[in-house]
Amino acid sequence: MNQYFTYILQCSDKTLYCGYTTDLEKRLATHNSGKGAKYTKTRLPVKLLASVDFDNKNDAMSCEWWFKHKLVRKQKLSLIKNDLIKEKFIEYLELKQKKNIHLK
Predict the structure, then answer these.
(1) Where along the chain do its domains lie?
(2) What is the C-alpha to C-alpha distance for residues 93 and 73, in angstroms, rounded to an integer?
(3) Which of 8, 43, 51, 53 sits between 20 and 30 A of 23, alpha carbons compared?
(4) What positions does the domain GIY-YIG occupy?
(5) What does DSSP say about strands 47-54 and 16-21: parallel, antiparallel, or unpaired?
(6) Residue 54 neighbours by CB distance under 10 Å
(7) How far apart are CA 33 and CA 55, in angstroms?
(8) Phi, psi dihedrals of residue 70, rounded to the nearest 5°
(9) Spatial contact of 50 and 86, defined as CB atoms under 8 Å apart
């Protein structure tokens, strides 16, 4: 069974970049070689701040989307600092599921 990761990088300009992968070491090396995402190419070097593991690609991609679109920078930094990314993501999914149940 594959393992999937949502990861957060800090770029040289102190901005954050979030992505997903199956191989953290390889992906970090790819980013730092300038062959990663367009966003990180001009912000090298990057360093890994946090990663969260998942059993399936969909959860890793959903966590990436949630981190990018549902949180502001202050929230992101707090979750990273307190190692709460996965816990808060699961809470978000549970709340979302409850809302969907009540809407039906």
Answers:
(1) 4-103
(2) 20
(3) 43
(4) 2-79
(5) unpaired
(6) 19
(7) 28
(8) -110, -5
(9) no
Q: Identify whether the C-beta of residue 40 lies closer than 8 Å to the C-beta of residue 13.
A: no
Q: What is the CATH number of domain 4-103?
A: 3.40.1440
Please state, in angstroms and rounded to a whole number, the distance separating the CA atoms of residues 82 and 16: 16
| Pair of tokens at residue 104 | 């039906």
Q: Which amino acid is at 23?
A: D
Cα–Cα distance measured from residue 39 to residue 47, given in angstroms and rounded to the nearest whole number: 14
Residue 86 amino acid letter: K
